[in-house]
Specification:
46% strand, alpha+beta, Transposase
């Protein structure tokens, strides 16, 4: 999980490990969360699947920043 402060909001990028099968490579589902004053503002569903935890977290942060930009 990666946290960033953005225009007065706390935006989070999440990477959720997906293990479909033992012989499958690890994949990470991305999601984003936006909070303000410790209260949930908005949360995404699964935004996509990525090969690395970092890529998934960044996708979640990108979604959260875009949401703030369009609702601010």
């Amino acid at each position: 999980m990666e946290l960033e402060s953005y225009h007065g909001y706390s935006v989070w990028g999440h990477a959720i490990l997906q293990q479909e099968g033992i012989l499958q490579p690890e994949r990470y589902a991305a999601s984003g969360t936006i909070t303000r004053n410790n209260k949930l503002v908005e949360a995404s569903g699964v935004l996509g699947y990525f090969d690395t935890e970092e890529q998934a977290q960044h996708a979640g942060l990108d979604w959260a920043r875009a949401w703030v930009d369009s609702h601010g």
